[in-house]
Predict the structure.
Amino acid sequence: MSTLRVSVVGLAGAGKSTCAALIAEFARGQGLSHSVVKLAKPLYDLQEQVYLRSGATLAAGAQDQVLMEALADAMRRIRPTSIVDDFLARLDGTTADVIVNDDLRDPDHDAPGLTGRGFRILRITCDEDVRQKRLAERGDPSLANRSTRHIDRIRPDAMIENAGSLDEYRAKVHAVLRSWM
């Protein structure tokens, strides 16, 4: 089997992280190794440093989305492909059978970098009221939607509406993965 590479895209709160977990579950069930490679790793690293230098605390896994957008803007201003180049360098060291990315947002530099390396794009959508409720429950210090304003320009290979139970969502995700193997 060749490596299956999946990039899960969607708005914050749509269920991308849950989808990534379901893909990991699928891989384990098939006896395949699995890895998640984040595009935004440099942004998370910088966010941690900004909070540390500011003398503030940030809960594990929390996203200061306004800060992360500003950091991404700065990196892309300095060198437009800096984030995807960092991702691709880390990807080259990944030997898993199934590789997942769940934070693709940029259609101009990042998406071509991933699709050029064989990633299939899985778009996740959900009801807006449900998405807003999930975001409120996450407890991120700030929310921002600017970084996803062009997400519709990333052409998906498949789409899933995350509208039912977890079991229904799992069945949809696993069906797409089976069709791609």
Notes: The chain has seven helices and five strands. Strands lie at 4-9, 34-36, 98-101, 119-125, 158-161. The chain has a mean pLDDT of 90. The longest strand covers residues 119-125.
